[in-house]
Design a protein that fits this description.
14 helices; alpha/beta; single chain
Amino acid sequence: MPMGRMTRRTFALGALSALATVPAVPTRSAPVPGRAGPAPAPHPTGRAPRAAGRMRGVWIATVANRDWPSRTGLPASAQREELITHLDRAVRDRLNTVILQVRPTADALWPSPYEPWSEYLTGTQGGDPGWDPLGTAVKEAHARGLELHAWFNPYRIAQHTDLGRLTASHPARRHPDWVVPYDGRLHYNPGLPEVRAFVRQAILDAVARYPVDAVHFDDYFYPYPVDGETFDDDAAYDRHGGAFSSRAAWRRNNIDALVRETAAGVKRVRPGTRFGISPFGVWRNASTDPRGSDTEAGVETYDDLYADTRTWVRNHWIDYVVPQLYWHIGDPAADYARLLEWWAAAAEGTGTRLYIGEALYRAGADGESSAWRDPVELSRHLTLAARYPQVHGHVFFAAADVAADPIGAMARVVADHYPGPAEPPR
């Protein structure tokens, strides 16, 4: 089916991370798949030189045990060993940043006084894993010269709609009026100021406890639209939306407020810690708004997720943005090359650092197009991005795919673009 005619839901599922696009640019010969490529030449001092700080990042997703831990119920020692393996692999591949998902579903991977321990650790929500994953991750990442960005999902509560399955002390059970079921999941209602305050409080607890290098949001704000379903926020809109021209404008303001207030809170609690967001890659299509990208995407963050990502960047409300450009060069609906150009223009002169989110998970995956079966596709992305001074690096989705690297796409990136280690971005 042509992507330009896909439903919004189908397009979103096809383009998202597990939580979701020129002519070919010549690159060097491919290394052996699954290997990190040739080692750099020895430095005269005996230590490899470190390149200037550009983002070389990887996401480690914990929701549904996507990347880590490999399954629930592992003993603390095995969980820690798996985490250390991911960190060591990042160093091996000459990366400098790990973005660890620490609040996947209104829960915590640290001893939070506000939310229960994540079920993805022990298999039981609220079950104490016997160690401190976030605290350990920060310490071990820093010991390896890696930055640790703590990744929080603001509004997702559960991957089901049964409040009774949540632990008895869960805030969503204590405040069922905060909750909206939609698309087979439970969500906090972004239209309630008390929800926004609670989400911010839960996040800032981690920032206060640990010297994380950044707070990171993904692409989930209002949920991705589903045909035939309505996100029921009527009561909140009646109570709080009177000053706005439309429900859409009110919803966008709710998300804008979350972004601004979180940014201010992070800077207040731990000065120097950055705040970044990784949105879906299309703000608006040019057919919707002349300021938009030359795309035919079935989802537009401004209109469907009520996330005005362009404004956040242009107004420098966030320190960095990592648009998920999860398409190949020449994709007919969302061409990586055209989106790269659009985002470079959007970030130019703003002070907001632009990093590009890369779909490593698509390389060699079943059912993907021929472009994604080519191990050189991702390397071409980095070659193309190097033409834009506004682009300050890349982040790869995700850690399990870095480890597996079935067709050697990550190994090709390392061999072609990461000849030595790089200082973390500042």
